[in-house]
Design brief:
Number of helices: 24
Strand content: under 5%
Helix content: 55-70%
Subcellular location: Nucleus
Order of helices and strands: HHHHHHHHHHHHHHHHHHHHHHHH
GO molecular function: DNA binding; DNA-binding transcription factor activity, RNA polymerase II-specific; zinc ion binding
Low-confidence stretches: 1-5, 76-83, 305-315, 475-500
Keywords: DNA-binding, Metal-binding, Nucleus, Transcription, Transcription regulation, Zinc
Mean pLDDT: 79
Protein name: Zn(2)-C6 fungal-type domain-containing protein
Domain Zn(2)-C6 fungal-type: 6-35
Number of strands: 0
Number of domains: 3
Distance between the termini: 110 Å
Radius of gyration: 36 Å
Largest sheet: none
Structural class: mainly alpha
């Protein structure tokens, strides 16, 4: 069958092709007759030959340009290459590092401000130091709940999220997972602090494990790695180890996760002269001594993780529990320390007492009328009132500076007190130790609001339990009050001191 009724030659004159061989019309014009040509399938036929040639030429041009650029980079001087961390200026780092030095060095005495600033200014390609600085700036903003923590953008400033993004970007510029150094360890640690304060608990836990893994790589779990103990480098390693130990105990007890670090035999040494560093380290030593009570078997038993069911199986006898509680009740004079340090030690001591009590009630007989307070089922009420009485001496700023750690400790105190209020027998409801206990519970709730704000999961969890337990609210304004916006610091303290 013919594919067309006319060929190209005949189409010119618009006459029907006769299909002759040869076609007269085509022959006259010296054209090939297409009458018998098979018609091609309709639709796209693929790129033209000229198009393919243009693409090939473009690829060759791009390849030549890449070679030329690489050759230019190879022969260029270092001064002509833009530093890869230029997204945040050095003065922005220094601004928040100064805040760390003034307000948080007593909490994390593991970074030398002057040394870090010198490293930043000396070498713009020291990505490890810049990553540490970025993580420390982010942790400082988050811990102190500065406006830069919650805001998406700050005019004339940087947010904590921007510092976090920069820290993670800088770490990708060198193989940080393959490097065991104190800078990389501390970067992971401060990232942990940021995410804990941002209520991203899983991310915080992952970064804490990363920091601990780096500590193992540096052999910080081995006593031999601290010899000789008197050198500045060794003392820094000892402080870093105990910072990790304290953070791991706090995080794992609250979140019921396994612990890896065990106490070492060395504590930080204090300077011989009466300097500020000596006072700072004195508080740090006192804090580590409180955490030594929380060995791994004891901590695991708090959440039912231990398969051993009695106190004597773990080495905690009745007399031991009584002695430890009595020793924790008597704190040494700490009037020469900074307020923030005194707060940290005071709250941590009461937190440890609460943990010991929770262990006691699950392993020993307790009673509302016990002559030994260590075995009183009402002890959390006394602990809460003592804590609030201690807070009367401190400004709210010195309480809020401890961020997430302060939140979880206050929550544990309030949660234990709520257990007592819910479970105490009606016959014991008039016990003198319970006098003002409900007011104390609401004062602790108010402190949680002041430290963590209304979005704090600890505050929300406590309020949920209080609502389910039908605990009345004496001051409804506390339920919606943004302490940082509608109430100044002095008012916050006064509202707590009404009870004591």
């Amino acid at each position: 069958m013919r594919s067309s009724w006319r060929c190209d030659g005949c189409a010119i004159r618009r006459v029907r092709c006769n299909g002759g061989s040869p076609c007269q019309e085509c022959q006259k014009r010296s054209l090939a007759c297409t009458f018998l040509r098979v018609q091609r399938k309709r639709g796209p036929k693929g790129p033209r030959v000229s198009t393919s040639e243009k693409i090939k030429q473009m690829q060759e041009d791009l390849y030549s340009a890449m070679l030329a650029s690489a050759d230019a980079d190879e022969h260029s001087s270092p001064e002509t290459i833009a530093p890869q961390h230029a997204e945040i200026a050095a003065e922005d780092y220094i601004k928040y590092l100064e805040i760390f030095k003034e307000r948080l060095y007593s909490v994390w005495p593991v970074v030398d401000y002057r040394d870090l600033v010198q490293r930043l200014l000396a070498d713009e390609t020291d990505y490890e130091s810049y990553a540490l600085a970025a993580s420390l700036c982010a942790a400082t903003i988050a811990q102190l709940r500065l406006p830069e923590h919650e805001a998406q953008d700050i005019v004339g400033g940087l947010t904590s999220s921007q510092f976090i993004k920069e820290a993670n970007r800088l770490r990708q510029l060198f193989e940080y997972r393959e490097i065991f150094s104190t800078a990389s360890l501390l970067t992971s640690f401060f990232l942990h602090i940021f995410y804990a304060n941002a209520e991203k608990i899983r991310s915080a836990g992952s970064l804490l494990r990363e920091a601990i893994g780096c500590a193992f790589g540096l052999r910080m779990h081995e006593s031999e790695s601290y010899l000789p103990t008197s050198t500045p480098e060794t003392q820094l390693k000892i402080r870093i180890f105990w910072i990790l130990f304290i953070s791991e105990r706090t995080y794992c007890i609250q979140n019921d996760t396994p612990m890896m670090l065990q106490p070492i035999e060395y504590l930080p040494e204090m300077a011989e002269d009466d300097t500020q560093d000596r006072k700072l380290l004195s508080a740090f030593v006192s804090l580590t001594q409180l955490f030594v009570h929380l060995d791994s078997e004891f901590a695991k038993s708090l959440n039912g993780s231990s398969g051993k069911g009695c106190g004597s199986c773990l080495g905690y006898h009745r007399d031991d529990m009584s002695t430890v509680q009595r020793d924790l009740c008597v704190g040494k004079e700490e009037g020469d320390l900074k307020e923030s340090q005194q707060v940290d030690i005071a709250v941590t001591r009461q937190w440890v007492r609460t943990l010991l009590w929770q262990y006691t009630v699950s392993h020993f007989p307790v009673s509302c009328n016990s002559e030994d307070p260590a075995f009183s089922s009402l002890l959390p009420a006394q602990i809460a009132k003592e804590t609030l009485s201690t807070f009367n001496k401190f400004s709210p700023g010195s309480i809020k500076v401890h961020g997430y750690g302060m939140e979880l400790k206050l929550f544990r105190l309030a949660d234990a007190l709520l257990d007592v209020l819910v479970c105490v027998p009606p016959a014991s409801s008039g016990h003198s130790m319970l006098f003002g206990a409900r007011d104390a519970l609401h004062a602790l709730e108010h402190l949680l609001l002041m430290v963590g704000g209304t979005v704090s999961p600890f505050l929300q969890g406590l309020r949920g339990r209080m609502a389910r337990s039908n605990i009345p609210v004496p001051w409804a304004r506390w339920l919606t009050l943004e302490a940082s916006e509608t109430e100044d610091d002095s008012d916050s303290t006064d509202s707590i001191s009404r009870f004591y």
